[in-house]
Amino acid sequence: MAEETNPETPDETKTPGDAAQKEPAPKEAASTAEAAPKRPAPKKTAKAKKEQPAPTAGTPENLSLSTDEVEKPKVVKAKGSKNVHSGVAHVMATFNNTIVTITDMKGNVIGWSSAGKVGFKGSRKSTAYAAQMVAQDASRQAMGHGLKEVEVLVKGPGAGRESAVRALQAIGLDLTVIRDVTPVPHNGCRPPKQRRV
Fold it and tell me: What is the pLDDT of residues 90-143, one digit of tens each?
């Protein structure tokens, strides 16, 4: 029995020793394996965090693309708002350009625009569509100061006379008077030489 006990004891000693040697090794490997994924895991979450702001940043861009939402803040308030209720819109329509200037009743400018400012170049500046865009731009600036009703003074023989007036009416301003103030010579000065077309 002593012989049996001796071989069992070394076996038992070996078995726990082997088990003790084997068990810590998997635990260490497991802990190393767990530690290794834990380190990249925060990197993945960091990447995920970096990706999350991108869609949020993309959402306002989609909102800003809609023209209605962009225009409303410009009309509502302007820097140094003057609270002007009524004013005068001066439309100068020449053969080459259209300029719209909106003033208060004293003559202080509260909004202006021209075909070049809106973005037209060359022969397109003299078109009726350019005059319409000019009138809309100038009236938005003036409405930012609280403009509601306007007198219209039209000057010049250009193509943008009527379209500028219609654009002022379409954007929501009340037109009280429309007056033609084109200067007409009464045999006073010598006229310029004839225009060659």
Answer: 999 999 999 999 999 999 999 999 999 999 999 999 999 999 999 999 999 999
- Residue 17 has phi, psi (to 5 degrees) of -65, -45
Residue with tokens 């409303």: 72
Residue 132 and residue 166 in contact, taking contact as beta carbons nearer than 8 Å: yes
CA–CA distance, 150 with 192 (Å, rounded to integer): 34
Flag whether the pTM goes above 0.70. no
Residues 6+ apart with CB under 8 A from 112: 99, 100, 101, 102, 138, 141
Residue 83 is predicted with a pLDDT of 84
Strands 86-93 and 149-155 turn out to be parallel
Residues 93, 167 contacting (CB under 8 angstroms): no
